[in-house]
Amino acid sequence: MDKETALEKLENRNLPLEEVREIFEAFEEDMQVVGQVAMNLSLRTSVYEPEKSAHPIMTELLVRLSGVEDMGSRWAVAKNPHTPVEVLTKLADDEVNLVRALVATNPNTPAEVLQRLFGDEKIVRDGLSGNPNTPAKLLKILADDSDKMVRMRVSENPGTPEEVLEKLTRDGDPNVAKAAEVNLAKRKEKA
Cα dist. 191→163, 166, 180, 186, 187 in Å? Predict the structure, then answer.
């Protein structure tokens, strides 16, 4: 198979994973194809139905893609809900801040790794604000962030403690306050 055919096939997110793996193995040194393999895995993964795409070949490819030089591929692995914890832990030390930031957003990232990422640069810390597994003490600190988008994600985060949400209902930005109110109301409906 030539490169153009491989790239064309990878545009189909329903391409059998066995074929995706074959293409990856045939073009492992070609970062354009490797990037398209990562994109194919991203396209078939739904954040709304994460169990839908779980497959041993996907996990194998995510592990292999986590070590490639192409930053876009590592980026796709960092945000994928099927990425194994050990890979997320490794990518938390990636040289590229966007990769680390996406590890911070991944709900499968362990709390101890999230705690460590809190000491990273702002773009990485900001990723923690929307992660439901971010420890409560970090969400409390992020609720006071000067960036209203960080406070907004904390307001919308299902893991944010109620007392933090109560405080955010009085935020100076009306959108942040409204998001906190909506989050609290949803919780009361479920209770």
Answer: 16, 17, 17, 9, 6
This prediction has a pTM of: 0.86
Same-domain status, 106 and 50: yes
Q: Per-residue pLDDT tens, the chain, 191 aa: give them.
A: 999 999 999 999 889 999 999 999 999 999 999 999 999 998 887 555 555 556 899 999 999 999 999 999 999 999 998 999 999 999 999 999 999 999 999 999 999 999 999 999 999 989 999 999 999 999 999 999 999 999 999 999 999 999 999 999 999 999 999 999 999 999 988 87
Domain boundary among 106, 123, 140: 123
Instruction: Domain count for the chain, please give it.
Output: 2
> Are residues 115 and 148 part of one domain?
no
